[in-house]
Amino acid sequence: MSRTPGRTAASLLRDLEAAAAADPSPTPVHGSHLRDRTGEHPGVLQVRSINYRTHHVSVNHVEDDPVTSRWSGTWMALWDRFEPVTV
Question: Is 42 exposed, middle or buried (0-12, 13-18, 19+ CB in 10 A)?
Fold first, then answer.
C-alpha cells in the first residue's frame, strides 16, 4: 500500500482493516513460542504483541526486554516465516 498525498489516517486505517478482514491466517497467541525458518533470528522467539484490528504482530526473543521487537508484520507474513515450537 503506497502512501498517496491527500489520504487521511482514517482512510489508511480503513484499508488496513479491510485487508485484515480478508486475511484467512490463523490468529496468533500472545506468548506462543516460534522458530524463524530463515535463521535470521536463531533461538526461541515469542509473540510479543498482537493488533487484532489490523492483523499485525510483533515477535521478540524470550530473553529480550518486553519492549524489544525483533520482527513485526502481518499475521500472514508471520506464518510464512515462523513456525510454532514447543519448549
Answer: exposed
Q: pLDDT tens digits for the chain (87 residues)?
A: 555 666 788 887 888 788 777 777 788 889 999 999 999 999 999 999 998 888 889 999 988 887 788 999 999 899 999 999 998
Residue 39 is classified by DSSP as S
Task: Compute, in degrees rounded to 10, the torsion defined by CA atoms 64, 67, 70, 75.
Answer: 120
| CB-count exposure of residue 6 (10 Å: 0-12, 13-18, 19+) | exposed
Distance CA 54, CA 21 (A): 8
Tell me the pTM. Answer: 0.71
